[in-house]
Amino acid sequence: MARIFVEGWSPEYGAPLDPDEALAPAEGSVDTSIETDDWIPRDGVDDAVPRIAFVDGVRRVDARLTLDDPSGPVAGICGTFAVGAAVWDREGCRSWIAHERIGRWAVLAGGRSETFPVVGLEPPYDTTTTADTDPAGLIRTLHTKMRTAEGHVATAVAADSFVVADGPLNELARVPAVGSIKSHRVTYLPPERNAVVAALGPRQRTPLFTISEYRRYSWYVRLAHVQGGHAWSGIVRCEASGQLPAAEVIRLADRTAAVLPLVASEPHLDPRAPQNLVPIAALERQLRHRMGEPGLVYRARREAVHERMAS
């Protein structure tokens, strides 16, 4: 009988293994021979990279909208996101937050385009539209805007830092960056290869594999053993651009297996431990502050809408 585990993650973050899609086989062509046919755990190699930039973004739905139209009400949302980078200078033993960017968007459903009233906020809301009419589609549009902004930040800091993005890579081409994915909604490997993932020790990784549909290299890393956890606890899936030479990606993969466990979080400090890296958690706190206090944002938005209706 299979054992059942209760995850410590808060539901709004999603679970390390998604209950609806957990470990369902992924569609598409996967090549597990890109690095080696000898599929065994591989030790990480710390090449003393001097500077690492951890890139992430946070978002918030500020309000639901309804556009009163003669043909019928049109749904929408107002949302805010903040993105940035937590830079770790390993040689100087210091860290800082850089390249913070704030975005505010009014997203309207059904392809409608209206200009949102000017609010007393910096930056103000821009307006975009989506063909989707369901609430999830509106939030996806906001999320895509945030991911694009993350990609721009990652490209900017990649000039002098090794980039680790929280989540899948976006807007990156031949940039030596790595995406670190905390949740495992699907499996990409055949069962015998999944057994290698479960067998990983801390600071070890699987060999590389490629996912043809995403045109990316990928590999799994164990950050730490989790007391009382399941076989995939403490595992992240990493990815890099398929436009990079394989030899360079192998070097990046070796580096991640050695370095990421150094900044893995602890369960008594972060419920998403160890996958939510310490620099990412610090960056998230700063970015949530930068988005503005929700009450102040709400009042500014309400006053702008009231003034527009009264004019």
Proportion in helices: 10-25%
Q: What's the assembly state of these chains?
A: single chain
What is the strand content?
25-35%
Number of domains: 2
In DSSP terms (H or I, runs of 4 or more residues), the helix count works out at 5
H/E element string? EEEEEEEHEEEHEEEEHHH
How many beta-strand runs? 14
Distance between the termini: 67 Å
Low-confidence stretches: 1-15, 17-25
> Structural class given helices, strands, pairing?
alpha/beta
Largest sheet: 12 strands, mixed
Task: Note the overall shape.
Answer: globular
The gyration radius over C-alpha positions equals 21 Å
Overall residue-averaged pLDDT value = 84
Structure characteristics:
two-stranded parallel sheet, disordered N terminus, 2 domains, 311 residues, alpha/beta, 5 helices, twelve-stranded mixed sheet
Overview of this protein structure:
The structure is a single chain. This protein is α/β, with parallel strands linked by helices and 311 residues long. It has 5 helices and 14 strands. The chain has 2 domains: 13-43 and 183-275, no CATH class; 52-164 and 282-304, no CATH class. The strands form 2 sheets. Strands 2, 3, 4, 5, 6, 7, 8, 9, 11, 12, 13 and 14 form a 12-stranded mixed β-sheet that branches. A two-stranded parallel sheet has the order 1-10. The radius of gyration is 21 Å and the shape is globular. The termini are far apart.
